[in-house]
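sorry for the late reply, my laptop died twice this morning and i had to redo everyting from scratch. anyway the thing you sent over, i finally got around to it. pasting the sequence first so we're on the same page, its 186 residues, then the predicted structure underneath. double check i copied it right bc i was rushing
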Amino acid sequence: MKQTIVHPTVGEVTICSTRRNRHISLAVRANGQVRLSYPTYVTTKRALEFLEEKTEWILKAKARAAAKNSTPPITPTQRELLRTKAKAYLPQRVAQIADSCGLRYNKLTIRATRSKWGSCSGENNLSLSLYLMLLPAHLIDYVIIHELCHTIHHNHSPRFHALVNSLVGGKEKELAKELRSYRINL
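ok and here's the structure:
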């Protein structure tokens, strides 16, 4: 069962009861969304009591998420500056990383995509978001490596993740988590 409620203090909360859950848990995503999950054997009333007990924690977590890696709103002029920077930097950086990792791709396109940082087609054509330029350099490199690894494994299989992990010094999970904390305000 999944539903959304509006809590008077913390706002919108998605509540979800599943068999997979072993405990009541709360999560505040990077975009500030709150999710309350609980096992099917726990009553909704008990889960909502847990939510009440944790309102202070939720508010602090939402504030951290809002402040942590949010970018200021981007104007059309700033977007064009990002595009210029991206076209100057990303092609040479992708080529450097591909050469150092021994990976090959066909062509690179830079787009103003907001939903994903990058993608790799079945023909090994890479597409990167110009908004990568808002990230720290180590995360730009992580996204590039992630997409280059798709030229070998066109999926997110364990072998794909093992390859990415080997190329990022065993830090794939930490880098992926850090990347998820970023968002773009347009």
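The first strand starts at residue 2 and ends at 7.
thats about all i looked at so far, will dig more tmrw
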